[in-house]
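can u do me a favor
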């Protein structure tokens, strides 16, 4: 097997170039807030879920999704947007990120394929752990809501809100907390007539 001097020299350079490209791509953090101005829409639909509905733990998870979708639907209805099953003027996606001092988990059942979930999860983890000066244990949930033009697939709005995770509370208190979080996240959403 022959090896030329040129191939020995260029393989490490190519490897370094690939590593450098991955490093730079990995360092780019996604925007946590996007606002392109008033949204021109009358209807919205949620991205179709790729979540399995069979597993026992999914029942609790689906109950939380129903609460989030109800809260988003209520907030957007107050702004003049009607929910349709599919084919709305805009598509709403959301990502749930739950974290504590040690780990962070993203629940992307209704995030769709618009990507960036792991980068957003990493950014939230960093903001919760590295930048947080509180040495006490905490557990927080972050809701990321994207509103995407259904025709151009352009991201029109990204809003985030963070709240403490409530454990063992009645469903009506959880729903109220979720509604307050969604209302806060979408408080500056403008819909054009």
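np, heres the sequence
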């Amino acid at each position: 097997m022959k090896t030329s001097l040129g191939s020995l020299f260029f393989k490490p350079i190519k490897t370094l170039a690939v590593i450098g490209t991955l490093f730079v791509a990995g360092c780019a953090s996604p925007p946590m807030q996007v606002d392109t101005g008033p949204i021109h829409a009358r209807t919205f639909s949620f991205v179709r879920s790729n979540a399995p509905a069979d597993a026992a733990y999914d029942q609790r998870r689906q109950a939380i999704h129903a609460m989030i979708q109800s809260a988003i639907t209520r907030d957007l209805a107050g702004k003049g947007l009607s929910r349709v099953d599919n084919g709305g003027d805009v598509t709403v996606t959301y990502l749930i990120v739950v974290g504590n001092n040690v780990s962070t988990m993203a629940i992307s059942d209704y995030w769709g394929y618009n990507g960036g979930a792991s980068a957003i999860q990493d950014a939230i983890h960093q903001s919760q752990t590295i930048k947080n000066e509180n040495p006490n244990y905490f557990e927080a949930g972050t809701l990321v809501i994207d509103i995407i033009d259904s025709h151009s697939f352009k991201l029109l709005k990204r809003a985030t809100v963070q709240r403490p995770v409530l454990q063992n509370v009645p469903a009506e208190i959880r729903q109220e907390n979720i509604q307050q979080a969604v209302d806060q996240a979408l408080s500056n959403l403008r819909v054009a007539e």
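Residues 32-185 form a domain with the Double Stranded RNA Binding Domain fold (CATH 3.30.160). hope that helps!!
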